[in-house]
Amino acid sequence: MAKILIIDDERAIRNSLKDILELEGYTVAVAEDGVQGIQAAEKQPFDLIYTDIKMPGMDGIEVLEKLHGTCPIVMISGHGTIETAVEAIKKGAFDFIEKPFDLNRLLVTTRNALSHKDLSEEVGQKTEEIKKLKKKVEKQMRMIGESPAIVHVRDIINKVAPTEARVLITGENGTGKEVVARLLHALSNRASAPLVEVNCAAIPSELIESELFGHMKGSFTGAVKDRAGKFEQADGGTLFLDEIGDMSPDAQTKVLRALQENEITRVGSDKTIRVNVRVIAATNKDLKHEIERGTFREDLYHRLNVIPIHVPRLEDRREDIPLLVTYFAEQICEEQGWKIKEFDEAAVQALQHRTWPGNIRELRNVIERLIILAGNRITEDDVNTFA
Length: 387
Description:
alpha/beta, Helicase, Ruva Protein, domain 3, 5-stranded parallel sheet, Rossmann fold, 387 residues, 3 domains, globular
């Protein structure tokens, strides 16, 4: 079981935290000031450290500076120390919690921090593998193109990502809405916290509430244990609601309440749980039309549509196709371990003049088909034959 160190000069706080965490099964040690905390950490390794910021002698910031990198460190902040806590996050603290403690917030933070430590250890053991994976993810998250339409989208992303504003991403299927959502998270102040994705269209309407808000054991047939929903899983991070236009009316009502009050209730429970989540939504539907039809709540639309980002169709940015062809060709050949295949200029022009109802997703599929079926250099004839 994980070992946790609590550093706080207030005995009541130390004992309260210790009792709560021991009830959850953790092994807990305490220290009454920064010096004792560092001495304890030097004697044995801990999986997580909670430290108060304001303490006599050595404060929590000094503790953070000395112990940063040994394990996740969560700052405990009282009244008037929030700015200091935010500064601590910039210096490497995993998170901070405020006094008086919210029990759910404390337990979720503890689980997230310990999960982060486990992931960090795994990354340390598989450095080269993770570097390759990271490189692959970064490539997949890039927005390729220099057309005015895509430059405009990138500009909005760069301006909006560091804020807490909710974003509604619209566009046809295959245009890259998920990439926009991932970039918004990666460039945000929540980047170190989870990005949790929910495809609202892929979940049956009778299960969407359980998926989003969690459920209690026995609340319905098949609920064999308590389960946290996506809102709880995304606490401190970003929740991406893809295909929001397909969400059931009942779920829409509960999502609206969660956005208004920053709290949710699991299915089968009457207890509210505080959550700190930034919501990004996406849809290929015209939500204003859905509002007129009565299938989408207007008040939820206005809650989500603080910053609208429309991702253009590929046919509206044809000048980006040569760059996309090169990018996908390199990506696909690298994945297959093949020498990169080149496209004739005439082949690229032929691709530019095609219609693309499936947008970028369809273009990538065509490029992969050409690389597999055509020769070492892809020609216009290959495009006409295989595309």
